[in-house]
Structure formats: C-alpha cells, structure tokens
Prior knowledge:
Elements: H1 15-108
Amino acid sequence: MQTPSKQPEISSMTYEEEEEMQHGIAKLRDQVQQVSLAQKGTEAKMDCLKKGVEAKMNDFKIELKTDMDKLKKLLQERVTNGERVVKETHDENKRNVNHDSIDTNVGSKTHHIPKNRYEEV
C-alpha cells in the first residue's frame, strides 16, 4: 500500500504578513529574554537581602544572649543579696530575742549593788 503523498501547502500569507509575523516573534523573544534577565536580577537581589537579614538576625541573637546572660547574673546577685539580708535580719532578730531574754532574767533578780566597795552584800 502506498501512502498518499502530501501536497505542499500553499501559503495564504503574503510576504508582508509573514515578515510582520517574524518581526512579532522576534519582539516576543526579546521580551521573554528581558523578563528572564529581570527575574534573575530580582532573585540575586533577594538572595543578597536574605543574607543581610540572616546576618542581622545572628547579630541580634548574639546581643540578646549577651543581654540575657547579664540579666541572669544580675538576678542571681540580687537573689543572693536578698537571701543574705533575710538571713542577717533573722540572725539579728535572734540576737535581739536573746538579749531581751537575758535582760528579762537579769531584771527579775534583785541584785544589790554596793554603794562603795567595802559594803557587804
């Protein structure tokens, strides 16, 4: 069996129309290239900005950690000093109670204090 042979198509376009179409295709190719280049440039700028933001975030994290360490140290000092003050206050109160107790005991006994050293008690 033979395949039917194709007859060459007869172009229904004029030379001017075909030239205009080729010119339109060339313009579209240029526009696609420009868009592609612009997209690559935008991506490069975005990468650069992303790296800048990441660097700033890292710096911020370092500063935040340093500040947190300082705050932690300050709070530890305050708590330690506060405990010391409470303990000292407690110790002082104990001493005061002991002195009051001694004073009360001493006050309840009647001691005769001689007027001169030759007087007997």
